[in-house]
């Protein structure tokens, strides 16, 4: 994925919007890491080097976020399931 903008800030914003718009299911991607990078102040300011990952990134950051999102998805699914139980369903013939 490549993003352009009139300024660095515009390009970063365009990339964040593109990452947020992606909907991929069933496989693991690096989009969460991309979001982390583009939201990081040092990256946004251009104050980074090849040690960026070693200095700023901890896998637990994304893991904790994924766990929160999974819990939220489970609660939404449970709520929908409970709603579905209240509906009368007729068998198909």
TrEMBL record:
<dbReference type="GO" id="GO:0005524">
    <property type="term" value="F:ATP binding"/>
</dbReference>
<dbReference type="InterPro" id="IPR005482">
    <property type="entry name" value="Biotin_COase_C"/>
</dbReference>
<dbReference type="InterPro" id="IPR011764">
    <property type="entry name" value="Biotin_carboxylation_dom"/>
</dbReference>
<keyword id="KW-0547">Nucleotide-binding</keyword>
<dbReference type="GO" id="GO:0016874">
    <property type="term" value="F:ligase activity"/>
</dbReference>
<protein>
    <submittedName>
        <fullName>Acetyl/propionyl-CoA carboxylase alpha subunit</fullName>
    </submittedName>
</protein>
<keyword id="KW-0436">Ligase</keyword>
<dbReference type="Pfam" id="PF02785">
    <property type="entry name" value="Biotin_carb_C"/>
</dbReference>
<keyword id="KW-0067">ATP-binding</keyword>
<dbReference type="InterPro" id="IPR011054">
    <property type="entry name" value="Rudment_hybrid_motif"/>
</dbReference>
<feature type="domain" description="Biotin carboxylation">
    <location>
        <begin position="1"/>
        <end position="58"/>
    </location>
</feature>
């Amino acid at each position: 994925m490549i993003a352009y903008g009139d300024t660095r800030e515009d390009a970063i914003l365009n990339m964040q919007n593109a990452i947020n718009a992606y909907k991929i299911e069933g496989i693991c991607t690096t989009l969460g890491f991309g979001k982390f990078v583009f939201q990081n102040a040092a990256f946004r300011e251009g104050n980074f080097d090849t040690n960026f990952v070693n200095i700023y990134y901890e896998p637990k950051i994304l893991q904790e976020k994924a766990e929160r999102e999974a819990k939220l998805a489970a609660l939404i699914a449970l709520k929908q399931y409970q709603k579905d139980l209240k509906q009368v369903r007729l068998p198909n013939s």
